[in-house]
Amino acid sequence: MDEKYSEKILDGRLVAKSMEAEIALKIAAETSAGRRAPVLATIIVGDNPASVTYVRMKGNACRRVGIEPRKVELKEETTTEELIDVIDGLNADPDVYGILLQHPVPRRIDERKCFDRIAPEKDVDGVSVNSLGKTALGLNGYRAATAAAVMHILEYYKIPLVGKEAVVIGRSPILGKPAAMLLLNANCTVTVCHTKTRDIDEVVKRADLVVAACGVPRFVKPEWVKPGAVVIDAGYNAGNIGDVDEGAFENASLMTPVPGGVGPVTIATLMYQTMLAYLSRKN
Questions:
Q1: Which residues carry out catalysis?
Q2: pLDDT, tens only, 95-106
């Protein structure tokens, strides 16, 4: 990345480091008083290389903040029913405070059914219908981790949101839609568009804040970005490429890089929500 853009970078690593410091302190206060450390269980089905890497990164983050990681590895041939049995076992385990089902799962598995089987109080990834409903209504609950990471970045850098026009590009149930709801709850005026939106460049040009989450490499062109806009690139594609062309740094006032932007904060958010689950349940 061109060094002339360094002052425009929203550094996710700094945000994650700050979050992890807070998490570690709060968990240490509990464990030093004699309480057992919380367990965060991550289920991985098959051996998708990207998923294996993500699970390892989550395990490392757990260890940095005092959370005990538990990796549950299942064969590629696992059925929906077998996966649900595993989730039920983790739901019943009092040592487990958070359950993650690593996405994606093999196509034969009913992912939504499995997401919704996770106990609401352990859904620290915020992927269940229960969690998404609470997000939409502005109720207390766990938020979809990457969508919440976007908000953590905006909060850390004290970016004003009230009355701002935000455009979210993407409509997935675990990123685009919850990000739009969180921004709406923060009093932004929100437009949700996607790869099928007509004249999308004109829509994006109106935005004070752009959240790109469509999963298409360099989908957002530099000329789409209004001068002075804040850009959050929540996409991650092969080759460390985001959903926004890096040339957008020219017009943006602030922008997240890929990698080193939303990704580290997503993992820190999983740790943060596991901490919340731990602190909310005394045993």
A1: 58, 102, 125
A2: 999 999 999 999
